[in-house]
Input
Amino acid sequence: MPRWLAPALIVCYPALIYLARHSWSPKALGIGLVVSAVVWRMSVGDTAISRGLICGGVLLAALAFGFNDVLPLKLYPVMVNGLLLVVFAASLWFPPTVVERIARFHHPELPQEAVKYTRRVTQIWCLFFLGNGLIALWTAVQQSARAWFWYNGVIAYLLIGTLFAGEWLIRRRTLGKQRG
Output
């Protein structure tokens, strides 16, 4: 199975739900969600996140199937943000943080200042996942399908990219000053 398939399904999920909501029943879309979650797990392996995506995806799909309603499927981005919030927040209480683990792939010997920095970045990601999840919930429950799609399928990804890019620029500048 190509490694790009699982991330592509996750990224395209809001567009797929939005575009298929009139052509396919919520029951069929729920089955698609389960298939996407299984493909994700097969692609990335057995991790806490993949297990969470499978369990959450099955639960939301069962609700969509049982109620024949698309709302549970629109809650998937809420669940993903909640899951990521739990994983990142747990790493604050049980170090090393997620960001520190990622940083140590490239720099196994991190100075204490860098460990503090990765902790702060993890906290920022926690705030992002909390806010993004709340907005995703609001769009799913209170807004039109179009607004839900635009936020969860476009704006949220732009915000994630902006946060990644901003953190990268700050890190480059900060590390550059420490080396200079």
